[in-house]
Specification:
Layout (H helix, E strand, L loop, with lengths): L1 E10 L2 E11 L12 H27 L11 E11 L2 E11 L10 E2 L1 H5 L6 H13 L2 H11 L8 H19 L11 H5 L10 H27 L14
Helix pairs in contact: 3-4, 3-5, 4-5
The chain binds zinc ion.
Length: 242
């Protein structure tokens, strides 16, 4: 039996069909039933590569014209970029365009794809690496990624750690500047606030302890009844340690 898998992409720039994989099964045995892990990883990697290529092509098409005058931006050159995803490291062609002359620009050229693929790593890849690296060692996280997903064989403890640090720095930056105090206002306004009650002493403390003791006594009584019926020990406990 032969199974052909095609990817059909429909977008504003047309309809494209590409062959993704051809799977063959010659013998009827348990090992050949369904996809193997190797085939699944290869399939995912191929779909991801074709899908992202189509998305990039459509994105660049929408960005090619100047938003102010509508003229097509000139091509200055191109260079290869690697986009790291959970389903493989994708090699893409990143064009460099000239800025349109209708407005002043500090730079003569720019790379539109770098604005879309900020950081060159997909958010899901960073998320899963960070999650696994927080539970197990960097090396084990790298092995787990390579065992289950079509990531590059170059993934190792150092790359996982680098991505973890990147996420950590972004989380730190999102927190903003460090605050010395979380109480708003100035000392003059704080002085106008009502003073808290002093700690309990003497007769009031003895009265409160007695009340708490009565509550614990009631709980003990309930617990004995529950245990008498063969139920489990309740976890709730009131401590009169005021
Ligand atoms: Zn323009």
């Amino acid at each position: 039996m032969k199974i052909l898998i095609h990817l059909i992409a429909e977008s504003g720039i047309g309809k494209h069909m590409q062959e993704i994989a051809c799977l063959e099964r010659k013998e009827h045995c348990l090992e050949d039933v369904g996809l193997t892990l190797r085939e699944a990883k290869k399939l995912l990697g191929a779909i991801q590569q074709r899908m992202v290529e189509q998305q990039v092509e459509e994105y660049l098409e929408t960005q090619r014209s100047c938003p102010h005058c509508g003229r097509t931006r000139g091509l200055k050159g191109s260079h290869p970029v690697t986009f790291q995803t959970l389903f493989g490291n994708l090699e893409l062609c990143s064009p460099r365009w000239n800025h349109c002359g209708c407005r002043p620009n500090p730079a003569k050229t720019f790379s539109p794809l770098l604005e879309l693929l900020d950081g060159h790593v997909s958010p899901e890849r960073l998320y899963l690496e960070t999650k696994w690296a927080s539970l197990i060692s960097f090396e084990l996280a790298a092995h787990l990624l390579k065992d289950t997903l079509p990531v590059a064989e170059t993934v190792n403890a150092a790359s996982v750690r680098n991505h973890l640090h990147r996420v950590g720095e972004r989380a730190e930056a999102a927190l903003g500047d460090e605050k010395v105090s979380f109480i708003e206002g100035c000392p003059r306004e704080w002085a106008a606030l009502p003073h808290p009650q002093p700690p309990l002493t003497g007769r009031h403390r003895r009265l409160l302890c007695a009340a708490m003791g009565r509550q614990e006594g009631a709980l003990r009584s309930d617990r004995r009844q529950i245990n008498g019926r063969g139920w489990t020990e309740p976890l709730l406990r009131v401590r009169p340690d005021v």
